[in-house]
Design brief:
Blueprint lengths: L1 H22 L5 E7 L4 H12 L6 H5 L1 E6 L15 H4 L6 H10 L20 H7 L3 E9 L3 H5 L10 H10 L5 E5 L34 H8 L17 E3 L2 H7 L8 E4 L34 H12 L6 E7 L1 H7 L3 H25 L5 E7 L2 E2 L2 E2 L22 E2 L4 E2 L3 E7 L4 H5 L2 E3 L3 E5 H12 L2
Parallel strand pairs: 1-7, 1-8, 2-15, 3-4, 3-7, 4-6, 5-6
Antiparallel strand pairs: 2-13, 8-13, 9-12, 10-11, 14-15
The structure holds zinc ion (ZN).
The site of zinc ion (ZN) has 6 residues, from helix 12.
């Protein structure tokens, strides 16, 4: 009798295990979109400027919102202090630690790229995706070896090691897509740089302008289509095909594409944020007053081109898309440029959602729309020490807001999720904030992504 009951119990447990594993949530595709430096007020300012009212962005309308803490390994966030002006100014993460954490699920030190607090490499979600046979990539509006794309693909103790990081991304990562700025042959106006051939003098400093693309030698190899390691495990190198022009990126948005695509756009630091202002005071420029660089693609164009390369893999893909210059505009306290960058990022989210609706489904694709930390302490006018709301001045007019800081703050930031496995975020929202409600931590993005794509 007992033996029979035992066997029955075991078979029931086995059956339960089988059904449980069959029902474990999975995602074929994961797209993580990072608006570097954003917070609730950045979205509100863009909402008022673009639409004259709040809640109009596609992620505000169709996604589930979780507030998210972002502090790095030696930091913390105290919900009781969430409206305290002075408290929020201290203890913020940087983009390297935040990216590493959202990629790996491991909190680390500021400045670290894909390394834990013990200075040992952590496993990126992209590396898990590669093991699962998926295609992978990173896209940004700043240099492609900058902290956020690096923090999803490379391993180094210091984000400042651009040359080494760029080499790792090109030679060691299994990525099929890398896109961003950092072109050593162009300036911030999108104009070709004319280099004089100067004889190298003994002891002179090496040319620094190639560091974002892995050094002068690697840049030559990329241009010749001869750079890149083995990305599919057959022991043979898989060379990158590099593109630079806006037209080439637009062509990549449709039809057949090369297997590995590296885009270094025709601009030095960023897509648009580093271009000259009217009267050379770009911090005060209203949005779109200075003409945009016409030879540089937009973030939505790059996003769709990246997806078109990656979606040829039947196993699915993992893609990180960064609106990196939201942070640059916020550091500079450049109000108009911040609005421009938010509009470009919002358009990229629209493009990605459109792709899921048309070419995939929310049952197989997870989209995460978030940031990495707040930047600029963006608040309504007259906010110190009270945190006042942004003021609506109607569609097409600059809303009333002020930057209160030149760097990052420790506020909870928004994380919007939709699609495959997005229910897991509800279970992760364990802490309670009096102002924002139940919130997740930036580790949850890495942990959940890895769970959803593990082989
Ligand atoms: Zn920053």
């Amino acid at each position: 009798m007992n033996a029979i009951r035992y066997i029955l119990l075991i078979s029931l447990l086995a059956l339960f295990a089988i059904t449980a594993s069959a029902q474990a949530p999975r995602a074929k595709n994961i797209i993580v979109m990072v608006a570097d430096g954003w917070c609730f007020n950045h979205i509100e300012a863009a909402d008022y400027y673009q639409h004259g009212e709040l809640g109009k962005q596609i992620y505000e309308r169709e996604f589930t919102l979780y507030p998210m803490s972002t502090f790095s390994v030696n930091g913390s966030y105290d919900p009781a202090q969430g409206s305290n002006y002075d408290y929020l100014l201290k203890g913020a993460t940087d983009s390297a630690a935040a990216a590493t954490t959202m990629s790996s699920g491991v909190k680390t030190l500021n400045g670290a790229i894909g390394m834990g607090p013990d200075n040992q490499p952590v496993e990126h979600a992209i590396e898990v995706a590669e093991k699962a046979g998926k295609a992978t990539g990173v896209v940004t509006s700043v240099q492609w070896s900058h902290a956020t794309p690096a923090g999803f693909t490379a391993h180094d103790r210091s984000r400042g090691q651009y040359e080494i990081i760029a080499q790792q991304m090109v030679n060691d990562s299994g990525c099929e897509v890398i896109m961003g700025a950092g072109n050593p042959d162009y300036d911030n106006e999108g104009q070709p740089i004319k280099r004089k051939h100067v004889k190298k003098v003994e002891g002179s400093k090496p040319d620094n302008s190639y560091r974002f693309v892995g050094g002068e030698k690697m840049w030559k190899a990329l241009k010749a289509g001869k750079a890149g390691g083995d990305c599919d495990g057959d022991g043979k190198p898989d060379h990158w095909k590099m593109f630079q022009s806006k037209k080439d990126v637009q062509k990549l948005m449709e039809g057949k594409t090369p297997k590995r695509v590296l885009v270094t756009v025709e601009a030095s630091e960023t897509l648009q944020v580093s271009r000259k202002g009217i009267d050379d005071k770009r911090e005060d420029d209203p949005p779109f007053q200075a003409p945009l660089l016409s030879n540089v693609p937009t973030l939505p164009e790059m996003a769709l081109a990246a997806i078109n390369v990656l979606d040829e893999d039947p196993d699915g893909f993992y893609l990180m898309i960064e609106g990196g210059a939201v942070d640059w505009a916020s550091h500079a306290n450049a109000t108009g440029r911040m609005i421009e960058e938010m509009i470009d990022y919002n358009a990229a989210v629209e493009a990605v959602v459109g792709w899921v609706n048309k070419n995939s489904s929310w049952e197989e694709t997870l989209v995460v729309v978030t940031g990495d930390h707040e930047c600029g302490f963006l608040l309504g006018p007259g906010s110190k020490p009270e945190l006042k709301p942004i003021v609506n001045n109607g569609k097409g007019n600059m809303p009333g807001f002020e930057f209160h800081y030149k760097s990052h703050t420790n506020q909870l930031i928004p994380c919007f999720v939709k699609g495959a496995g997005s229910d897991l975020f509800a279970g992760a929202a364990k802490n309670e904030d009096p102002k924002r409600g139940k919130y997740i931590d930036n580790t949850d993005i890495g942990l959940i992504a890895k769970k959803l794509i593990q082989p």
